[in-house]
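Job type: complex structure
Entries:
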Amino acid sequence: MSELDRRDFLKIVGLSAGAAATVGCEPADKLVPYVIQPEEITPGIAVHYASTCQECPVGCGIHVRTREGRPIKFEGNPEHPINKGFLCTRGQGGLARAYHPDRITEPGSRGGDGVVQPVSWEDATAKVAAKIGSAADKTWILGGPVGPSLTGLMDQFVSSAGLAGRLTYENFSKHALIEASEQVFGVSAEPLFDLSKSDLIVDFAADFLDSTVELEGQFAEARDLNKHTDGGARLIAITPRQNLTASNADHWVPAAAGSEGVLALALAKAVAQRKGVSLPAVSGANIASAISEAGISKGKFDEMVEKLVAANHAVALPPGVASSTASAAGASAAVLLLNVVLGAVGDLITYPAEDAKKTATLADVMGLIEQMNAGNVECLLIHDLNPVYSLPASAGFVEALEKVDLIVNFAALIDETTEVSGLLMPDHASVEAWGDMSPRPGVRSIIQPTLRPLHDSRALGDSILAIGRQLGGSAPSSLPEGTWKSVVESNWSDTDWRPALARGGEFEATPIRSVSVQSSAGNVRPTAAKLAGSGDFVLVPYPHSYLGDGGGAALPWMQEIPDPVTKISWNSWAEISFAKAEELGVVFGDVIQVETAAGSVELSVFPRGGIRDDVIAIPIGQGHTVGHYASHAGDAAYEGQSASETLQRGVNMAELLPAATDEAGGQAYMSTRATVSKTGRYRRLALSQWTDNQRKREIAPEVSLYELAQGGGMAHFAAAASAEGDDHGDGGDHDEGGGGHHFEGPPFEFDASYDADPDQPYRWGMTVDNDKCTGCGACIAACYIENNIPIVGEEMAIKHREMTWLRIERYVGDGETDFGLGGDGTDRRPTPDREELGKNEVRHLPMMCQHCGAAPCEAVCPVIATYHSDEGLNGMVYNRCVGTRYCGNNCNYKVRRFNYFDYGNKNWPGLLGLMLNPDVTVRGQGVMEKCTMCVQRIEEARQTPKDEGRPINDADLQAACQQTCASQAMTFGNLREEESLVVQTAKAGKNRAYHPLQILNTRSAVTYLAQVRRDENGGH
Amino acid sequence: MAPPPASAVADSMTAPAAPRDSQTNIDIMAVTKGFHWPWLIGLIIAVTGVGVAAGTLVYQTYVGLGIAGYQAPVFWGVYIITFVFWIGIGHAGTLISAILFLFRAKWRNAINRGAEAMTVFAVLTAALFPLIHIGRLWKFYFLLPYPNQRYLWVNFKSPLLWDVFAVNTYLTISLLFFLVGLIPDIAIARDRAVGWKKAVYTVLAGGWQGTGKQWKAHNRTVLHLSGIATPLVLSVHSIVSWDFAMSIVPGWHATIFAPYFVAGAIFGGFAMVINVMIPVRRIFKLERYITDYHFENMSRFILFTSLICGYAYGAEYFIAWYSGVEFEQTSFWLRAFGPYWFSTWCMIIFNVVMPQFLWIKKLRTNLPFLFVLCFFINLGMWFERYVIIITSLSREYIPAAWGLYIPSTTELIVLTGSFCWFSMFFLLFLKMFPIIAIAEVKELEIHDKEHH
């Protein structure tokens, strides 16, 4: 490792929150004290640096929390205009990349025998330079999206070296939307949405709640019950399968897959007629045929039209990956026209003044593949992309690569593409290198290093500069001077560098241009998806919530945290309807074969109610054959295996999808039909929750807006209870079949004098608003990373041995106390089974330790390993625990976890242990653990207020889960402080406040606010 | 139930002429002498089983409890089931030696030594299981209230701690009872032994000479110990039952648990006495001392306690229904018709239905039948604890967090090992001490003679 002088490092590391920092990190297992203590760093005090998330092209700002020179957590940057302090699940998971066991630790060259031998940087650089020198016009660069500085540098490199070309390719591109904007408004840009002021959102299979925290936050704002007594924005989700957005929708319209565009244009026409808007572009739509193509009822269509007409600020969201058909641009254009009719354009939808940067389409990449096959490519430089995994197998990229003489790969982590690359020149991890991103005009965001490089890697920019300087001719002189870092800095010369660094970048309002409908919009004629192949099913591939296009598969938490809709982790599954499952004779976990013209895969089936009969939906993102977490390579059960077919985790959709494109050349994911057959085999999936039937136990109840308006809500339970007088337990609830577990007494009276030492100023507690919770799971990632929660792997997850301290339960409706035989999975294969097509009754309930005032776990521990603190926390002394597990049995909320093996110490291979939070004990084998309400954060927050002689207030302290929640569904704080957010939130929602299982009188410190049913008919 | 004289019992054997004192000594001590193939084979199997289980346990302690079958939310499994099972087995011994002694039920004399030994060994087996069960075996001493510098103390509110005291008390009293009762017989063994054995027996006999004064003191001690042991018959299993009843788990939280467990323990304990005594009697030819009369009396106990168990099962279901509490209703419904229906129906058929055959007198003295029946009763009692623990835990308050538990191979090895461990002790005991209380049998015979 190069020895970087500490003083030099100090000079280049920026400031954040007024603190500068340094790096004292050594990967070796030595403890090296500071010889000269850096002035700015205090061991034990975390320092935050502003940077930018690089997990996806959205470009959220992050704060990298470091301790003694090691990044230990990513949190959202509150000043960043896109994510406003919040961060999604995958963004937080990006932390693991730097310490990942899959890191390529040094440059290497693949010999004739296929084994990679280490080479020096000089040799590697010289090899590439020599190749480019001899065949510059046969050299291509193929890469993923990168920031403006790197783009600029590479463009300079391409032109000065005279390369054949460079392709920037995104697996989930926006070409269709940009093409649609061009067609409708004549602007080649991606529109910006502002949902926060909307009162009706129509989601055309965009699944926006599963996309960015920005939209999620806007959605929460638009529906905030404290601001909108009418319940705020309503959400109509049009999607053939109940995705996360449809799970949060007021109305779910299960239109046929691929009919979104036709339906949008028909809606536009109908609404235009009713509103008296004259828009010739939509007048050609055929409403009757659209309704039949969408497979919905006339009544449903009219209902949507009614709602759209009645709304003042309605907005429609164009299709996402799951509905990217061959006519995706047409569909997007139709949705844009609907927005024009709704009056959203210019108001809720705006266009930046700058055009979108051109990126390569799948068609362009196919062109490159042709060139490769024709022998016109001798050298291919690949960066930030894993085309071997993600390009449709039928495109023939892998075969074409064999014709390429030298494949240079700059990936930091091994993947399917590095396995076939001849020369590896590993890039730094995201927290080790400089860089920048410009997610949208006006927003420029800096990426700054917060960790001294752990391995012998080199920033991509530096690699490019080094290669360029070895080239002959004028190439060296036309490249910028200095290092990659100075290149970045010079690109920021127009700004005040240090404040920008501290802030995380330059954040200005995006300059907007006004747009109007062009005559070309008249050509918008979306057609229902033309599907290739035959078969009973339409194949709907959709991005996995956490794995995205597959890039997230390497991150341990993304595998371990269950999918927010199906609650499955660690593998692929295929969703089909119950009716079809019965027809095929399969139940949950049975392996089916899915076949298209492009290929076939075998995977376990997940029958559900929330999907159309004609659809089979499979998530994109699994199916890796390389990687410790991405494939089975790191699983104990697969030790000694090396065959890629054996190691493949789940299925790779690239093997099943044809290389189809839409009008704009982007990949059309939803483009084929599939044949499904039973294999007779069974492969158990790790399903993290047993059932979605809450058996009328009111664990996640619901109140209607009407009840709230009447001053009712949860209070009616109290009234019912008191009306029965002393005759509890034999209440009238019987006729509901639910038993007599009603709430006793007022459901919500803050009397915080209980449950903690009366002399203490604090009683810690939370308020969780189920109405705001979308179930996205970002809080779970925050909890995992903050609290050093180990991941357990698929084999253990199947046995429900996951260690998560926080889970989100997903119930459908009030449930039923079904006493049928076998109704709860006597076949040992539980399937959540209460979803119904076109009806959304999903309730999300984040469940963590309730820190009960009268905790059942505390009384039964024989050694007082779990006890009640004087500030009301239910403490856990790991060192005292002998592991009788009685507490786990007696916890009615089932939030306690037992460390069966030494997960905490053994499940962080390689350097991953370096990312653990030093403030939190790594729990050993044989002890119980659970949510502590981030007691380490409470302790961290204690000092400053003490010095200032004031009590701890909300500004001092946030729980990890609360900090990252874009919907702000969680609040944490002092229940004894009347003005604290946690009390105020609960009071504001007191008509829907409740404690799950209140009948047990555990005096939970977590108050839940029931979900609100905004429209009485509820999409029924 | 006035006991008829032992010699008056009608059985296939002709009533033997009253043996001479020395003949009784010779007959019973013969068990410890000589060579018996079944004994040796049994011992080899038992020691091997203990060895395998011990190895498994060491491995489990090293790698973690994950190799057991636990699946959240079922945090207790075969180990706790087996703990309760063995504690229950011990109860028949204490009942026979303490309560029947106090009630002067003379027929107990022929079986009490064997039953007492069984009690001691069963408790020794049971006491291992809480340790096998805990996550950090090496910290087991945290469960004991010992003074320490850190002022760490145990939680007297926890039923598990009550368990620690209950089991330790039980072990102490059972052991004392057993050893005190053995003294006169050890003296007989001492008088017949030679070599190093004589030295051992001499020490254990504690200078017993059989004087009137010694007999008086001995009888008083046994009487007092019976008085102390009597409440234990009720208290130990009551406390074990409170491990469950004191919790809030639906299916556990029930007031019936203490009497229900005690009855079940006596039921299972007698079944185990029969299962052990039938082969012992056969192999060591003790038919003259352990007669059909004894088996018939024990059968009556089994029939009686089976009825109590049946009542308890019924009462649980009735209360679950009558309470109107959905949690309880669901838990009990799924016990019978959910994924664990098999264990529940095994429990009901083996423990309640099958013992009803004992209403027929002929079957009460039909030893092959009794042996098979008692085997099923033991199985049924193990399943009873399986039902209580596993079905309740797998179906608690939060339906999303329900789960299933399937015992792993590890647990089954340790379960088998526990039977080997128990058998090993019992087999060694057979060869070291008289299996029948010689002095008490003689006392009874003298008593009978005088009444003739």
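Summary: Chain A has 32 helices and 40 strands. The first helix of chain A runs from residue 6 to 12.
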